[in-house]
Design goal:
transport; 9 helices; transmembrane; membrane; phospholipid transporter activity; mainly alpha; Conserved hypothetical integral membrane protein
């Protein structure tokens, strides 16, 4: 019994320690970036890594998610004579929930892990110490381009996911005989600008969380190659956990009680 309490206590302390370090790092970057030197050319590289290189995975996952949603809902809608609403329901689900969350998880797994491993390697090979020796703020110099790239590209990828996922759902229902005009009109009726904006707000939060968690884990790496591997795993695990937790909170605030 006491062993389990000890394990639980260590997990809670570890979580709070990481949460405090993430908050400290985020505050440091936000406060010091106007005065600190940082490589603006690195942003282009990070934009490509976060955005362009994630397009294929986002396309496949979003398209098949839309198709699966159509498969699961169309028969029920046909049974109750509500097939004219199928397009709006699929689009609303993609816009509000699926696209922001799926895009965040894809970026966290593909890019967040890469960021954490890269920074962790720089930490254990003392490259960050070299930056500090040259008078640079390593947290801003290394972290800021990655944070900015995530803030820019994750919302763009989310918009792309909304379109692809909705189109994927349309492909299935079109084969089942639902007319394109009916599908389009239901989207116009059920989906509002507020819903799209809510999804984009989520994607902004998720983009920031992915980058700051990856950077925080990378800066805490220690113990050589093994430590870098553990850091990479922690970055992905914590990013996904924060995405799901924050998704619930944001959904409650943005869409709770809204029809």
């Amino acid at each position: 019994m006491y062993k389990w309490i000890e394990i639980l206590g260590k997990a809670v302390v570890s979580f709070l320690d990481l949460l405090g370090w993430i908050a400290s790092l985020a505050t440091h970057v936000l406060v010091h970036w106007p005065l600190a030197k940082w490589d603006t050319r690195a942003i282009a590289e990070q934009l490509e890594r976060v955005g362009v290189q994630s397009v294929f995975m986002v396309s496949v996952i979003s398209a098949f998610t839309g198709m699966v949603m159509a498969v699961q809902t169309l028969d029920q809608f046909l049974r109750f004579g509500a097939s004219r609403y199928i397009g709006g329901v699929i689009a609303l689900s993609m816009v509000r929930e699926m696209s922001p969350v799926l895009t965040g998880i894809v970026v966290a797994g593909r890019v967040g892990s890469s960021m954490a491993a890269e920074i962790g390697t720089m930490k254990v090979t003392e490259q960050l110490d070299a930056l500090r020796a040259f008078g640079l703020d390593e947290y801003v110099f290394v972290g800021l381009p990655r944070i900015l790239a995530s803030l820019i590209m994750v919302p763009i990828l989310t918009i792309y996911s909304m379109v692809v996922g909705t189109f994927g759902g349309y492909l299935y229902v079109a084969v089942r005989g639902v007319h394109s005009l009916m599908f389009r009109d239901s989207i116009r009726i059920l989906v509002s600008t507020y819903d799209i904006n809510g999804g984009l707000i989520k994607s902004l939060v998720f983009g920031f969380v992915i980058a700051i968690v990856a950077c925080a884990c990378g800066f805490r790496a220690q113990g050589g190659a093994k430590g870098v591997g553990e850091t990479t795993t922690l970055a992905v695990v914590w990013s996904n956990m924060f995405i799901l937790i924050l998704n619930y909170m944001l959904s409650t605030v943005l869409f709770g009680g809204r029809v």
